[in-house]
Amino acid sequence: MGMNKTHRPGRRGMGAALKFVAFMGIAASVMAHVRLRYSSTGAPLAWENPENISLVIQSDGSDDIGDGSHETAIRNAIDAWNSASGSRARIVESMANRSRRDWQTNNVHLVVFDENNSSGYFSGGSSIVAITPVTFFTDGRIIDADVIFNGKNFGFSTSGEIGKFDIQDVAAHELGHLLGLDHSGVCGATMYPYVDPIVILHRSLALDDQRGMRHLYPTGSFARISGKITRAGSGEVVPGAHVAARDGDGHIAAAILSDANGDFVLQGLDSGSYEVIVDPLDQPVSSSNLGGGQAIYTNFESKVLGTIAATQGQVAGMGTHTVGDDVSIQLGRVADDYPIRGVRGTVNNMIVRGSGLVAGSTLECSDPGIAIQNLSWNATFVTFEAVIPAGTPLGHADLIVTNPSGDTDFLVGGIQITPPDPQVTGVSPALGDAEGGTAVTITGSNFRSGLRVVVGNRIYRDGDTGGCVVQDSSTITLTTDDTIAGNHDVVVIDPTGVEGRRTNSFNVVVTPELETVFPMVGTLAGGTTINLTGNHFVEGTVVTIDGAIQANLVIDSPTRMRVITESGIPGGPYVLRVESPSGGFAESAFTFVDAPDPRITMVTPDASDMSGGQTVAVLGSGFGDNTRVFFGVDPRTGVGGSMASTEFIDGGQVRTVTPASSVGTTAVMAMDMETGQVSTLEAGFTYTGQEPVDGGGGSCAAVIVPGPPSWKRIIGGGGWILLALILGVWHSRMVLRPAVRAGF
Amino acid sequence: MRTLPLFAIALGLTVGFVLPAFFPSLRGSSQAGTALRLSLEDTFERSDVVVEGRVHSATSGEDAEGLIYTDWVLRADRSYWGEVGETFTVRLPGGVLSTGKGMVVPGMPRLTVGEDVVLFLGEESPMGMRLPTGLSQGKFRIVTSTSGDRTAIQTGEHVSLITARNTRTADGLDMLDYADLVARLEAMRQDRLTREVPPILVDREPAGGAATGVK
Ligand SMILES: [Zn+2]
Questions:
Q1: Would A497 disulfide with which of A27, A203, A237, B126, CB 3.0-4.6 Å?
Q2: ipTM of this predicted structure
Q3: pTM (2 d.p.)
Q4: Is A201 in the same domain as A257?
């Protein structure tokens, strides 16, 4: 490394802030924005083929998100970068390899939630919210980058839950690293290094972030502004000075760091007139937030360098500008949440921390349309109101503080001017088919062009084919795409990232499917537990038998539910209907008989050897001559198992001999073979013993010769229930329809 | 990489109830010194190892899964938490292999051979990594000013101090008198010793073989 340069103490010694001087020796050109670098040579890092950067959203998702909305949030973050004007970079989501978690491998670029520190980055009480390791070759080519969320130590949300981090906000930042950006000194930038729960303003890219993309991956030649920063008096160059350009609205249009020679080139600008400022990169962003490869000086004053016109494709030279020593006033601290949101058309209470914020100082906004009033100076913080007129252009503005001695400091891009939150007051219709095709009208206020609507796992972007249409500031229309089932929030996300949400306002319902109904017969007194399996059982599903609502319904999962029957009229089979909230339904059958259901309360003994032959008493009620006992059935479907020889003792007891079985605990079922009524005792009997062990090695060491099949096995699967029904229930009054019918 | 500012968390817990009613964005205190003290304590409490020393050497390697790391060998001057020997090897993610392949983790503080540091390190991961607590907040670089005073700063590796006066408490997150830092770490250590037994750390062999050193 080079020599340690020194600098004499400033004349304003009493107020001197941080006084640093850098080890020199890195002559790399520091261009617009802050790029990731190979620290030994300063070589900037970038993708060789940025037009197609493949990214895989790992399919396990986040433990905090059950509805797949994290994928939507990540896709929105991808979209933000892909939409940066003048950038060739495109992150392309790949649907292959979604189950892979080997982020270290270079041939797959993953977004993954690490819930158990499998990455090794989140040991103990880690304070890292998310991390993006970037793999490169020393010539600067990025060959891999993966985004790892710390699901172990932090909670994540897509719906603004208190204390959790917004996935889209965090993803937008991490994807900036993936693309080759380091942290930014612009407080309102997506690449600002710090994040707090619920912050969502980094979802939208600041111009500074977008200029970074124009610098790394330009589609053409943009306007540039060059210059050099030196120190007043000594003429020493100032490396790592934070230089920013304000546009005609006083908003930050681009920012850069000067290189080792004090030279800067603001890149990627549109044609226009710019006010150029310089500010030390001390607080709230400092060199500790940046990767290596460049020197950062902070011991100089903040200053307006001048105003200059820049033209497309040309470099406007500002020449050399000098800066004086550091001053005793400073605005911005890590403890503040940046950017500070200022809502158009409102008066915003704000606080900014710093040092030397004494009475008699002045505070202005770089946007001249924004008035600052009701100031209270408290040395280490200042409170004030920012009056933001309704017509204020959106973007990031600076705060400018000046003390009574005339010393000044800038908080670069510290205020983000946003529209008011969108408000969603109505969604019509409130119901749609999972296959899509539903025309939906969203009503509310503050809808702007360029917004996105999120419904379930689908994003509708204003103006896109298949997207949404902002008809006016209070109306959005869209036609749904195929969507996962569930009662979803309808979320309207403004291009600035602020959002409006109507919870549970669009119910996507699929037609339920029935696979098994067990049992299909029960006592007219009611109280029979029917187990239903199938698909798309959602909240609000209704089950009826012969039109009578079965109120006692428990939905265990989208594929399983249980009904305890109401009392019924003897007869049947009646239509058993499963109807979703939208009216889609599936049907099977159920029969009421005028006899109590059998009920097993106890099996004794409840364990014996797997070889079978054990005499067992089955105790309970409702047993009869036709009762038969089965071992090993699936208690939810009645499928499987073996019938045992059964001896009727009395209504409260039957005696049975266990059939042979494999080791394990199984269900015991008693069935009336005439009516089809059943009672099942889950985990009612345990087979003990030792399973035969394969001698090991041989591919066919043992062939198990099956015993003679039971009649149940012969007809296979659940069909025996049907057979039992047909045998026992002769008085069917209507055609049994075991085949499931569906409608909508 | 995104981190939570540690001292912001601590501040939010202790003084956040005073003013937020008027200023929802206010979570901290007007007392920057308080912020600094909380920050350092929080960083200390969250650390499994707090060690001071000179960075002696560095060797990069790649583990079986393809993660590139660097083993930084410290000549340990003292430890504030965790018993360490004369040398202590810290494995951090990132580095460059002799093949020209490298890995960088944005936000991770960097070490430089020859620099004097105080490191606050988290628990060791199954892969043997220890990440700095609070990332850049978990590394202090010790520098000597022109007057001979030693100062601890949290900053990038290419920066050294020449003067430091007067506003240091306000700018406390970045800068501390070295003597203050040592005294406070010692006090924290003694306080923590009443509640916990520090771990005894056996130094490991740094990566060897085909890997080359990083600078
Ligand atoms: Zn970051």
A1: A203
A2: 0.77
A3: 0.64
A4: no
